[in-house]
Amino acid sequence: MTPANDIGFLASLALIFTSAAFTDNILLARFLGMCSCLGVSKKVDTSIGLGLAVIFVTASTSAINFLVYKYLLSPLGLGYLRLITFIVVIAAFVQLVEMVIERYSPFLYNSLGIFLPLITVNCAILGISLFMLNKPYGFAQTFAFGAGGGFGWFLAITLIGGIREKVKESALPAGLEGPGITLVIIGIMSLAFVGFSGMVKI
User: Fold this and answer.
1) Which residues does 155 contact at the CB level (< 8 Å), separation at least 6?
2) Which H or E run contains 36?
């Protein structure tokens, strides 16, 4: 590749990352991964911890699932097994992340509780791997798409966690406490992120 081609290639990766993170945010535009968001976004610390784990799992599994689908399932005519195969790959990576967090950050491990192993069935992660199949991406583009999608989920849940911490200091009507006010926050943030729609399309 010439330097100009290298710059163009890196720019395309940056655009794919930005598009997945902002204009097509997996949580605020697609509303995937809501259960984990509602359960974990009570504090910024736990939101950041789970968000970082999701970035790692999403970026890694989307790239590996791309390779598995393109070079194994598709050539063998086993594309109909993509769902179960993707889930197995995601489960393996979640187990790895769980063991690492338990070893090096017991506090975060206990804070995340049941939602850490539930990353396996986080529809946001599986959704990104499935959306990848509908896009004309190569390996590097798929990795950028997965990393951007994970970062978008991380950004959304961290912002929601920060807002929820501030809201707890305010007097709320009984009907809006807990998940009620969280859904209102997510709705308002979704409207804000809709403003990014159309800015970047890859």
Assistant:
1) 21, 25, 51
2) helix 34-40
pTM metric for this prediction: 0.85
The distance between the two most distant Cα atoms of the chain, rounded to a whole number of Å, is 62
Q: Residue 4 — pLDDT band, cuts 50, 70, 90?
A: low
Enter the tokens of residue 194.
């809709």
Parse the chain into domains and list their residue ranges: 10-194
pLDDT tens for each residue of 50-70 = 888 889 899 999 999 999 999
| Look-up of token digits 């999608």 | 149
Alpha helices by DSSP H, listed for 119-198, are 123-132, 139-167, 179-194
User: Token pair of 90, please?
Assistant: 């995601």
pLDDT for 95 equals 87
27 class by beta-carbon count within 10 Å (0-12 exposed, 13-18 middle, 19+ buried): buried
Confidence of residue 151 (pLDDT cuts 50, 70, 90): very high
Contact between 56 and 50 under an 8 Å Cβ cutoff? The reply is no
Distance CA 88, CA 83 (A): 9
Q: CA 140, CA 133: separation in Å to the nearest integer?
A: 14
